[in-house]
Amino acid sequence: MGRRELLRIDAKVEVEFNNFEQFYREYTKNLSKGGIFIKTSNVLKPQSILEISLKLPGVNRPLSLVGEVVHVIEPELASGHGWDPGMGVHFVDFEESIQRVIEQYIARKIKQDSGGKVSDRRAHSRVAMRLRVKFPSLDVLEHDYSEDISRGGIFIQTKKPRSVGERLILTLVHPETGQEIELLGEVVRVNNEDPQSPGTQTGMGIRFVDVDKAKSKSIEKFLGLDFPVESI
Prior knowledge:
This protein is of the alpha+beta class and 232 residues long. The chain has seven helices and ten strands.
């Protein structure tokens, strides 16, 4: 008996993407990390187990996956912030063979693409390291906003900072709603551990790159604040 047979399935859902670009955005954001965000007003409770039928654009046979709901954005909350209602789902039954099918599908579609848009996106995601930043509490998020985010950047504490000039794709996760926002950043300063200065925060200062009006508005909605974020 496989793992899937041991799980209690609470619901079955079908997920279909309108086009390859839409699917590829979801892949680079969630699917490649073992999860998916399902946009729906009929959200289920966290820890619910779903059997997911994933239909790829241009492919007749859907992929079968099982996932657990890990966070929910209720329709009421979504409408008040301009977000999409839905469920963040983490795969609990995701075979390597399915991963290979998805990767081969993406490689084939990229090769077929003649406009270069998908190829450019693929190259961009390969060059930039991806980093997930989950704020432990709303107080920490508000502190970071007042210190850094409002000025177009963020300081990330880490004992292994990246090099100045390196670009990162940051996924900021809201501590209460689970809402995520993806930003491109560049390391502009590094604080290394210094035995002569105990208590110094080690980490890296990151400047947000290409923050236009639309992205700035998305950050404001993510923060739940009405103050503009500067682009520096």
